[in-house]
Design goal:
The strands form five sheets. An eight-stranded antiparallel sheet has the order 20-19-18-17-16-23-22-21. The protein has a five-stranded antiparallel sheet with strand order 6-7-8-9-10, with no helix packed on it. It folds into three domains: about 20-90, Roll (Membrane-bound Lytic Murein Transglycosylase D, Chain A); about 100-255, no CATH class; about 255-370, Lipocalin (Beta Barrel), CATH 2.40.128.270. It has helices at about 1-20, 40-50, 55-65, 100-105, 330-345; strands at about 25, 30-35, 85-90, 110, 120, 125, 140-150, 160-165, 175-185, 185-195, 200-205, 210-215, 230-240, 240-245, 250, 265-270, 285-290, 295, 300-310, 315-320, 345-350, 355-360, 360-370. It starts with a helix and ends with a strand. It is an alpha+beta fold. It is about 15% helix and about 40% strand. It is elongated, with a radius of gyration of 28 Å. About 30% of the residues are buried. It has five helices and 23 strands.
């Protein structure tokens, strides 16, 4: 009887062991079935600690497919489909730290925009033309100088929220926020969410694992070109998704949003490739809403003037005066260019953490003083 009981117990232990066994796995590797939001570099990072080791998975899977048709044949490493069976060959994880700085983020891989992930190179991705020989093609750009660092997954290590601008040749510029986890110094895209078309970004922060984006978007009666509604959109990682939380509506954006901040001129004319300010000069602007005045330094002399706000995003400048201290010739030329452009300003808008003043005299690009 005792031997019978021991035999039954042994059978039960073996049964439990078999039921708890993982999918086919040998010393040489293991099977893996593709899940939603998978891509090869993400799997390479998971199993090897090196996102660039995805070629190991491609070669091993194709070798398996030659022997067993149940495995996928991978012709394009950028395209894998849910349900495909891959072979993950065994390999010791890479433990060297990567680059989680801005350069690393500008050269990372991002999903959630197209059906397959895109690889940025120095902050830019460019796909094939939609029509052979045509000019229109999918493009994705890293939004410069607009990102935040903070812990998104509670591991005590700073992750990042970055922003991407997508355009496929039309008038729309579609903005996305991407959560980037810091995995051994390597940036890994844990989730991407859509923000809007031609949205104007004001600021971003990460606090208690939540990404909060202050931005101007289209109100109920706004055309796509001319957003006027300020909102705060918030996002949190839940599993493999970046989930949007209820948004907070601030109201119609106004010049009051410019007050209580020292704005510093970072360039003229084109926000994408601005004409820089002369070295060792600082041009500033302060807005006093109560008095309806602007003041600041033009680089050498101080200036002052009045303004009125006629409607959201529009300004009318009154006469602008300035002190008359003599300055070097190049500084005076820059000062005159600035004051002339400022006098002609007819409106403003937020843009990727900056504020743009625009008018007949050109564009002035300001950033908040650090």
């Amino acid at each position: 009887m005792k031997k019978l009981i021991l035999a039954i117990m042994l059978i039960l232990v073996l049964a439990v062991s078999v039921s708890a066994a993982p999918p086919v796995q040998t010393s040489g590797g293991q099977e893996y079935v593709v899940q939603a939001n998978d891509w090869l570099s993400k799997l390479a990072l998971k199993y090897y600690g090196d996102m660039l080791a995805f070629g190991q998975i491609v070669d091993a899977t194709n070798a398996k497919a030659a022997e067993d048709p149940s495995f996928a044949v991978i012709d394009n490493p950028d395209v894998i489909e849910v349900g495909q069976k891959l072979w993950i060959p065994a390999r010791e994880p890479v433990t060297t730290a990567g680059d989680f700085g801005v350069d690393g983020l500008k050269n990372a891989q991002y999903g959630g925009i197209y059906d397959t992930a895109v690889q940025l190179t120095d902050g830019h991705y460019e796909g094939k033309p939609f029509v052979e020989g045509g000019a229109s093609r999918p493009t994705v750009d890293f939004v410069k100088d607009f990102y935040a660092f903070g812990d998104l997954n509670g591991d005590g290590v700073d992750d990042a929220a970055v922003f991407l601008a997508e355009n496929s040749g039309g008038s729309g510029v579609f903005t996305y926020v991407a959560a980037m986890l810091n995995q051994n110094g390597v940036p890994v895209n844990a989730g991407t969410a859509f923000l809007g078309d031609r949205s104007n970004l004001i600021s971003v922060k990460i606090e208690d694992g939540i990404i909060a984006v202050d931005m101007v978007t289209q109100g109920p009666d706004d055309p796509l070109c001319c957003a006027t509604l300020e909102v705060v959109k918030s996002f949190k990682l839940e599993g493999d998704e970046l989930v949007e939380l209820p948004q907070k509506e601030i109201g119609t954006v106004s010049a009051a949003r410019l007050a209580d901040t020292m704005w510093v001129l970072t360039g003229f004319d084109n926000p994408m490739e601005p004409t820089p300010v002369l070295p060792d000069t600082e041009i500033t602007l302060m807005v006093d809403m109560a008095a309806g005045k602007i003041t600041g330094s033009a680089g050498c002399n101080n200036y002052f003037g009045g303004f009125t706000e006629d409607s959201p995003g529009t300004l009318s400048m009154g006469p602008i005066g300035a002190t008359m201290m003599a300055c070097p010739e190049d500084v005076m030329a820059q000062e005159q260019k600035f004051l002339s452009a400022l006098q002609s300003v007819g409106g403003f808008q937020f843009w990727n953490g900056k504020v743009l003043f625009h008018g007949n005299g050109g564009m002035l690009i300001f950033s908040p003083q650090k």
